[in-house]
Write a structure and sequence with these properties.
This protein is an alpha/beta fold. It has one domain: Luciferase-like domain (TIM Barrel), CATH 3.20.20. About 45% of the residues lie in helices and about 15% in strands. It contains 13 helices and 10 strands. The strands form 2 sheets. An 8-stranded parallel beta sheet has the order 3-2-1-10-7-6-5-4. The radius of gyration is 19 Å and the shape is globular. The chain starts with a strand and ends in a 5-residue tail after the last helix. The model has no long low-confidence stretch (mean pLDDT about 90). Keywords: Oxidoreductase.
Amino acid sequence: MEFGITFKGFIEADRARYLVRAAEYAGFSYCWFYDSHILWRDCYAAIAMCMEHTEHMRFGPLVTNPDVRDWSVAASIFGSLSKQSGGRFDLAVGRGDSSMRVMGKKPATLARVAEFIAKTQAMVRGEEVSYGEIPAAVKFPWAVGHEMPSWIAAYGPLALKTAGEHAGGVVLQLADPGLCKWFTDQCIDAGKAAGKDMSNFRSMAAAPAYFGDKARAIEATKWFPAMVGNHVADIVEKYGADSDKVPASLTSYIEKRRGYDYSKHGQADNPFLDFITPDVVENFCVLGEPEDHITKIHALEEAGVTQFNIYLDSGDEEEIIANYGRHVIPAFR
């Protein structure tokens, strides 16, 4: 089991440096940043900075999308970060939720997500690439042949199929072992059907973690199911609430959802949290004492999850990192 942390772009630079050093020392091997350039500061400057203050930790956006930057600009950023860090960069891609919708634009198609991954990976390797309507192919003379690992964020059946067929891993924004198994199995089955070797396919459960009193932990992390509910609402709109293509345990909790405020995306002061119940928060997050965290992450591991990634957005960041370093991560070594 790998362990990661994720920051939003409003974290101050000195605090980000301090926390990534602490996290690497504690045994975390990944650090991810939200890529939503209007809501928060651009993530790639912060990634470059944090790379300089770590030795082994890997970095990447969680997640970027195909429509927010020209593809050669995006690939140049990815390749530059890969080169200067000695290959410590992963690419995680989604359709573009907050990043696009806050501008009034629609998310990208899944076909475009898959093509974006393939074309940017090829550019980072140093291959000549044509994309879109550019009149001349693009080739980076400075590329060093780095093979950039890829992930796709997914919930719905078509997104899971795309992840299995076109990426090396799937990003699942929840920590419910049953749902994670269902999602991961969908990816693996799709990849096998496409003729891929899925033995090294990776599955990330990305969710908040919190220690101590359960009621306080639930209050600190209830913003998260609301953020997930925004994605689930898209799935319900496409497939219906009673579709057998999506588990009822995922879709049922948004029945009383009234809306979503993108200006408060992924934040505790989002005004649309009233439909979130304590049991949903407990299912989606990892809460309680260290032994509770260990038990749940073992269940995630048994469900096929290969990385638990903590959304470090709920307060008590030092305590969370320290408790994982002292108690949780050693249980998986």
